[in-house]
Amino acid sequence: MNNKDRLERQKRIRNFSIIAHIDHGKSTLADRILESTSALTKREMKEQTLDAMDLERERGITIKLNSVQLKHTHTDGEEYIFHLIDTPGHVDFSYEVSRSLAACEGALLIVDAAQGIEAQTLANVYLALDNDLEIIPVINKIDLPSAEPERVKQEIEDVIGLDASEAVHASAKSGIGIEEILSQIVEKVPAPEGDPEKPLQALIFDSLYDTYRGVISYIRVVEGTIRPGQKIKMMATGKEFEVSEVGVFTPKPIACDELTVGDVGFVTAAVKNVGDSRVGDTITDAERPAEMQLEGYKKMNPMVFCGLYPVDANDYNPLRDALERLELNDSSLQYEAETSQALGFGFRAGFLGLLHMEIVQERIEREYGIDLITTAPSVIYNVYLTDETMISIDNPANFPNPQKVDYVEEPFVKATVMVPNDYVGAVMDLCQKKRGEFIDMKYMDANRVNIVYNIPLTEIVYDFFDQLKSSTKGYASFDYEMIGFRQSSLVKMDILLNGETVDALSIIVHRDFAYERGKAITDKLKDLIPRQQFEVPIQASIGQKIIARQTIKAMRKNVLSKCYGGDISRKRKLLDKQKEGKKRMKSVGKVDVPQEAFMSVLKMDNDK
Amino acid sequence: MAVTSAYIHIPFCRQICFYCDFNKFLIDRQPVDQYLDALEQEIRQANISEPLDSIYIGGGTPTALNEAQVKKMLDIVDRLVPLAEGAEYTVEVNPGEITMEKLAAMKNSGVNRLSIGVQSFETRLLEVIGRGHGRDDAVEAVKLAERAGFDNYSIDLMFGLPGQTMADFQASLDMAVSLNVPHISAYSLKIEEKTMFHNWYKQGRLTPFPEDTEADMYELLLDYGSRNGLYPYEISNLAAAGYESFHNCVYWKNEEYYGFGAGAHGYVDGMRYANIAPLTHYIKALEQGNTVVKEEMNVSSAEKMEEEMFLGLRMYAGVDKSRFKERYGMEYKEVFASTVPDLLENGLIEDDGEKVKLTPRGRLLGNEVFEKFLLEKDDAS
Q1: Residue of B nearest to A581 (CA)
Q2: For the Radical SAM core domain, which residue ranges apply (chain B) (predicted)?
Q3: What is the C-alpha to C-alpha distance for residues A138 and A110, in angstroms, rounded to an integer?
C-alpha cells in the first residue's frame, strides 16, 4: 500500500467502544452490530461473542478485552472500516478501560431506558470525555413497558452535560435502531488523525499469552506503520523485539501485511511474558524511535492481597505452576512464597481488586483443579516505625510489635454511590459505619442522588458491596478510585483457637471498631468450625488483651446406629467420608478448621 | 470361615415411612408371589448344607405380606435353610399388620424371636414420621406377640424425631418398661438421601435435630436400661441378660452371612456383596438363571482388620484381643499403632488386657473412634 492509499483509507476508519453498566445491554448490542456488519453469520455466533472466557459469561462481565474489525457500507455508498473495542465491565479494571478508550475516537454510551445512568457508567463516560471521545448516546431497551426515554435523555443532559437530542432509541434485543447507530458512528465519530510515515507509535491496550505464539498484544496505531520483520521497542520497559506477525480480529485473528494509522489489531513478536508488553505502553520502531511515549502509561500496582494455600500440602508445586501460568497472562497479578504457622507453605498474592482476586482464585480451582484455602484479603499498610523507617505490610501477620510503631497509614478511595432518593439515608449510614468521610451529594434528577465519600479501602474490601446491595435492595451502583494513603489509628487483632494464635486469621482494624469486629469474627467462627471432641475457646485479642470470646462446645454425640441389613460397606463409606472431610480441613492446634473459616473474617453477615 | 447366618429381605411395605431409605416398594400391585418364587430360587442356588445359627427376615416389612404369602415365605425357609439346634430365627413385624394367624404360622415354622417396629408409643410422633400405626396398635402388637407365645422379642424405638421432646422419649421408654420388653433397638433419626425427610430438609421444612438433645436422649436410654435390667450389649441395642440378639452380633463380630433378596447384602468367602435392588430386575435375573449379585467387594486383609475393630467396638464386650491375633496374626495395637495410644489417652477406648472396648464417652463418639481404625492407604499395603 502506498502512502496515498493509506491516507485515503484512514478517512474511512472509525474506532469506537461501548460504555454501559452491567445488564444495560452492551454485549447484546455488540452482537447485533457484529451481525449487521456481517462480521459473523448468525450460525457462527455464540451468544454474546465478545465475552470469551467461561467465567466472563457466567458473571456477565468482560474481563479480558477484545476488539474486532468490521466493514460497514454507509448510505453514501462508501465502505467504512469499524474497530469495535470492548472494555472490561468492572471497577477493578478501570485502568484497562481507560487505555482501551484511549484507542478510540468515539464511544457509544448505552443507557437502559428504564434504569437511567449508573455510577459505573458515569465513571467511564468521564474517562471517555477525558480522552476527548465523541460520545453517541443510545437509549437501549426502548421496547420495555417501563421505558422512559425522555427522562433518561434529560438525565444524560443534566448529569453528563451531553446533548442527547439525537440519542438513538434502540433495542439491541429486538434489533431496533442498529442501522441508526451505525450511521451515527460514520457521521459523528472522527476519522483517526496521524501520519503513516512518522516514527511508529502504537498503544498497547491489552495483551494476553498464547502458548504457541507468545504474547499477543492488542494495539492501536497512532502514528507510523508496523509490519512483520520490523524491530520494535517497548518504550516503558526498553525491551526490543522483532515483529513476527500483525493482523486484525474479524473476530477471528487474520494476519495482514501491515497496520497503520487508525488501525486496531494485534502484534506478535515472540514476547515471552505479558510483563514485557504492558497495557498502556507505547510500541515504537527500534531503529527510528518516536521522541515520546504516548500519554497515560501507568504501572498498575496490586491493591488487595491474600494468602493462597493448597488444602493438600502436595499441591504446593502445582499451585506455584498455576500462578506462573496465570502471571504470563496477567501483568497485574503478583505473588511470592509465604509460610504460615497455621496453613503451611503457600503464597501471598496481590490483585487489582476483589473481583480480580476472586477470578484468579476461581481459575486456580477450576482450571488447575487445586483446592485452595484463601485468607481474608488485606490492603497494603505503610507502617512508620519509631526508628523513622517505613515498611509496607500486606500481611497482617507481619505487623510489627506495637511498641516499635510510630504511626500507620492506610489507602483511601473516593467512593461514588448513585442511588434512588429513598436510600440516601441507608447509604450514608453505611459509609459512616465504614469510617467514610462525606465529600459531596448531588441530586441528578428529582429521584436520583450521587453521593461521594472518602473511605478506607480496607472497609470496601470488608463486605462493602454486599452490605450496599442489601441496604439499598440492589438499587445502588458504585464506583471507586484510589486517592492515596492517610494516617489512621490501626491495630493488629489476633484470633486464638484453643489458646493458640492462628496467624492466618490476624487482621488489622481501626481501634474504634476492634470490639465490634472481634465479636463478629468470633461469632462467625463459632458457627463455621464444627464441634470437636473437646471444648474450643475462640478469642480475639489486641496484644495481650482479650476483647471478644466465644466457645465451641465439645461434641456430644456422633455415632450411627442402624445396620442396614448387614450393609457394612455403607458404614465404611460413611467413615471414609468423615475422614476425608477432616483431611480437607486444616488442623490448627488440634482444632480441625474448615476452609471457609479463613475467609470468614471478611464477612459480617447476620444471615441467620 | 463358615457362614453362620442368613439375612432375607422382603422389600414390601403398606406405607412408606418418611425417613426410610431401605430397598422397599409399596406393596400394591407388586408381583409378590413372583418375588417369593425368585427368592426361593436364589436360596436354592446357595445350596446351604451346614445348619445355620441364625436367620433374620427383615424388610421392608415381612408382615406386609398376606397370610398365604407369609406361609409361603416361611415354607421356603423351612425347606431350604437348615437350622442348628438352638438357632435364633427372627422375623420383623409391624404393629397394625400382625394377625394371630400370621404369628401362629411363624411359631409353627420355628420362628422364635420377633422384632416389632414400634418406633414410638406416641401417636403424634408416629404420624410425623409417616408410620401407619398408632400408640394402641403398638401396645396391641406387643401383647399379641406375647399371647402367641413369643417371650423373646425386641421393639424398635426411635429418638431425635422432629418435634420430639425428652418427655416424649421418656414416655415411650416408660411404656416399654411397663410392658416388660426384653430387648430394645434404639435408633436416632438420620436424614438419609432419597427420603421424604431429605426433601423437606432441602426445602428448609425440616431442621436437623439438636445434637445436645439427641445426646441427652441417648443417655436417658442407657440410664433407663440400667435401672430396668436392660444392658447395652451393643451401641444401639439393649437387652435383658440372655435376650441379646445373636444375629445382630454376627455383623459386629465380623462373621460371614448370606444375604438373600432384592437389595440384600451378604458376606461369603471373604467377599462382601450386594444384590440387584430393583424388583423386576431381581426377579428377571433369577428367571433367566443369572446371578443377582450386582456388586462384589473382596475384603482385603487390611480391611478385615479395620472392620474387626470398627464393628467389634460397637459391642459392649468389645473386641477380643486374642481372637484378633488368632485371625490376623498380629496384635491390634501393632496394626493400629498410630491411633490406639491417642484413643486410650483421650479416654475413648479402654484395654482391660483381654478385650478392647469403647468407654462410656467413646460410645457417644463412636464414629470418631471408628474413623481412626481406617488405615491410611499406604499403611494398608
Answers
A1: B371
A2: 1-231
A3: 5
